[in-house]
Design a protein that fits this description.
Chains A, B: Keywords: Cytoplasm, Decarboxylase, Lyase, Porphyrin biosynthesis. Two copies of one chain form a homodimer. The first copy, chain A, has 334 residues and is of the alpha/beta class. Chain A is 47% helix and 13% strand.
Chain lengths: 334, 334
């Protein structure tokens, strides 16, 4: 029987909205923190297939969400390309790249064998819900490589992009590699893939069109044509580029809370995912309940919608409130 | 003779676009840094009328911009309301408020006599260009009071707002006080006023409508009706709320670079101000010239436009490049 998530994406009749949450397996869970202690280094933790399978499954066991996203990190393919990636406690990732595009490795569908094994393991462990594979968007990964980590303004990335010396060849390579990276995940059994574009939000509207869309559009077309799975695109700064996205070959647009999602659902014929402000999880249950129900009642269609937050769950959020939220959405009849 | 800025706002014929820059008097200028040394504390510096007049005039003298914005800080009226405001070197402002709305002071048009004197001084010192008075938007000021300073996510503000215990009375008082604060500036001679809404960008689309717009709309209507000057509204996260703003009583919408300003100018009949990505100022002059001319050629109107950046000039920007930018815009014929 087809899953609720896939039914909703396809526009088939559903009784309730499917729900999963970005960063649903994370530090806010006691069980996650316990498993995390088994490996000192974050990347080794991601690469430990058994641990990563256990972590991926936690939200299904503890929250009973409607989809499992595999536990991994968007920088995994960057490291496989030969770039040094390190995670230090309490800091963001450190990415050390020498700037030479030509010496970066080309990936094939089996380059990330451990990621593919995590997918197979999660598929084998349960049949109830679909498994979401994922990768970072080409521009977001390029920005980590150029900045040397996260950045609050993409200052270096913008200069690199405008100068166009290595930009085009690096983006071309990232697109090639990410298609292979996702191909491996789909061959391993991923039912859906999600592309995370965390950093495009810092681009101007014109630069997004000139420098990101140029690569995203064919990237999405290749995923749809060659991999043939439902495709979700999550990006921050969602109101900026929504008009551009209408023409993308994505099935689901996953948006943050700054966009008029409800208005957009009326005019854009794609499935939507999102977009509750995650800060609501700091409120008490009465307020959460009130705001979430107000929100759900405004969703204008009975289908083609996946409940999610507008961004990931933060480490200091209360597990019980997250569970309360999931139950609330699951009990709401469309 | 009417100034280029006012002509452009009114839609009268102009030969070139007017230009001024947010934070045009600031640390990136040697002359600013020299004057800044004359006072240890930042707020005392803002309140020293002679110094503030000199600082306000620096961009006219050194860059020959088309408007002078008075040198001050958006937290000045907050301090006048009885809240402790401190600026520590290298940190953002610290705002200590006890949370009691009832004990906050009501302002009148002459509460900020030193601000009004700065306007009079700048008007007296030159007749060439209009003088812009300003204030922070009610929501942005409330967020400083509730957070105790700047915030990257407005976590406390959102909870305060959703609970609605003090929110409505504080917003009502802020609107009243800010109308008076601007009234003083207009009586002192301000030709234009700009309202800075730096933090509304963190609100969801629905929350902006429910909690910010509710107060902004009547605030703007009162400014227009009672003070009768051209009104500019600058807000970050510009793509999120542009549709809402169409119905505001503002003359000029000042936007950041994440919005399709050029497309919006075709559909929204207001003057626009903005929206160059300020990071371009880190590029070399060749690239600045290329990108700025590309940008100017796309402006679809010959008037009702004011060139500005999408945000303020950063302290580490190069004065010579800022001057190069101003000259470039001034030499472009519409």
């Amino acid at each position: 029987m087809e899953s609720l998530l896939l039914k909703s994406i396809k526009g088939e009749k559903i009784e309730r909205f499917p729900v999963w949450l970005m960063r649903q397996a994370g530090r806010y869970m006691k069980e996650y923190r316990e498993l995390r202690q088994k490996r000192e280094d974050f990347l080794s933790f991601c690469k430990d297939v058994d641990l990563a399978i256990k972590v991926s499954l936690l939200p299904l066991e503890l929250l009973e969400v409607d989809a499992v996203i595999i536990f991994s990190d968007i920088l995994v393919p960057v490291e496989l390309m030969g770039v040094r990636v390190e995670f230090k406690d309490g800091e963001g990732p450190s990415v050390v790249w020498d700037g030479v595009v030509e010496s970066l490795k080309k990936l094939s569908f089996n380059s990330a064998d451990f990621v593919n094994e995590i997918i197979m393991g999660v598929k084998k462990a349960q049949k109830e819900v679909p498994v979401i594979g994922f990768c970072g968007a080409p521009f977001t990964l390029l920005s980590y490589m150029v900045e040397g980590g996260g950045s609050k303004d993409l200052r270096k990335t913008k200069l690199y992009m405008w100068k166009e010396e290595g930009y085009n060849s690096l983006m071309t390579l990232l697109v090639e590699n990410l298609v292979e990276y996702l191909r491996g995940q789909v061959l391993a059994g991923a039912d859906v893939v999600q592309v995370f574009d965390t950093w495009a939000m810092h681009l101007s509207y014109e630069d997004y069109k000139d420098y990101a869309e140029t690569y995203l559009k064919p990237f999405f077309e290749r995923i749809k044509r060659e991999l043939n799975v439902p495709l979700i695109y999550f990006y921050r700064g969602s109101s900026s580029f929504l008009e551009v996205l209408k023409d993308f070959a994505v099935d689901v647009i996953s948006v943050d809370w700054t966009v008029d999602m409800i208005g957009s659902m009326r005019s854009i014929n794609k499935a939507f995912q999102g977009n509750l402000d995650p800060h609501l999880l700091y409120a008490d249950e009465g307020l959460i309940s009130q705001k979430v129900l107000e929100f759900l009642r405004c969703i204008p269609r009975k289908t083609k919608y996946i409940f999610n937050l507008g961004h990931g769950i933060a480490p200091d959020m209360d597990f019980h409130k997250v569970k309360f939220l999931v139950n609330l959405v699951k009990s709401y009849r469309v």
